[in-house]
Design brief:
Helix content is 60%, strand content 10%. The protein is built from eight helices and four strands; from the N terminus they run H-H-H-H-E-H-E-E-H-E-H-H.
Length: 244
């Protein structure tokens, strides 16, 4: 009797115990998998201790530069209109009041080169300097800034003529791409599941045969997600791990 046959006989004799064991593992793994989304790290992050990271941190610590990490806020409206000027002043004041904001660069800021206002005077850029050297912290600040200026955004869009206010730049783009990737992966899975079930039903012809590979796939995803949740306590796990 070879080892596979011994395993098979043991599984048949103790099938209830084995079923209970795997159901327990599945339930515990499901609890961890359900918490995975909150543990995944958005954005690019940093390789701690690498030469570029050390250089960036040294430059931020030794030189008094409030714009080491920045967000970019764009005001889309007639810049010279009195309503737009008032809105920009209120926007700058709101941004400066945030604890994470170190400075806000405007066209009238001393030493600022031209270019923050478009040539047609219909757009203006506010460069928001953050009080952090960390890219991860800068990426987390995107939603904080968007939430803080949301009332102003709504008010600006109701004005006549309407004014639009947008948070953009490298960090905002990274956060938006992460959100798009997560939503796109979920939508793709939701569309693929019924098609997969249909093809399996046509291939195997019976409900039991169709459900077996589907259930194995669900179990594999739950176990893999639980494993990522466990690793996330030791390592930074990117949101793109969900797409693998």
């Amino acid at each position: 009797m070879n080892s596979l046959e011994r395993w098979a006989r043991m599984s048949v004799r103790h099938h209830r115990l084995i079923l209970v064991f795997w159901m327990t593992v599945f339930l515990v793994a499901g609890a961890g998998a359900g918490r995975l989304q909150g543990r995944l790290q958005p954005g690019t992050g940093e390789l701690q201790g690498c030469p570029s990271d050390r250089t960036a941190r040294l430059a931020g610590e030794k030189f008094s530069n409030p714009y080491h990490q920045v967000q970019v806020v764009v005001v889309d409206g007639q810049v010279d209109a009195s309503g737009t000027r008032a809105m920009i002043a209120q926007l700058a004041s709101t941004l400066r009041a945030l604890p994470l904001v170190r400075e806000v660069m405007l066209p009238d800021t001393p030493g600022v080169p031209p270019g923050l206002v478009s040539r047609d005077r219909k757009r203006q850029v506010l460069v928001v300097g953050l009080g952090t050297l960390s890219k991860r912290a800068a990426e987390r600040s995107v939603e904080t800034i968007r939430s803080a200026i949301a009332p102003l955004v709504q008010e600006a869009r109701r004005s006549d003529p309407p004014i639009d206010i947008l948070v953009t730049g490298q960090h905002a783009l990274t956060v938006d791409l992460d959100a798009f990737s997560t939503a796109d992966s979920s939508a793709a899975e939701n569309r693929a599941f019924p098609l997969t079930a249909l093809f399996l039903a046509l291939a195997f012809g019976t409900l039991t045969a169709m459900l077996t590979p589907l259930m194995m796939g669900v179990v594999a995803i739950v176990l893999a997600s639980a494993a990522l949740w466990g690793l996330s306590h030791l390592l930074d796990i990117t949101v793109f791990a969900q797409s693998v």
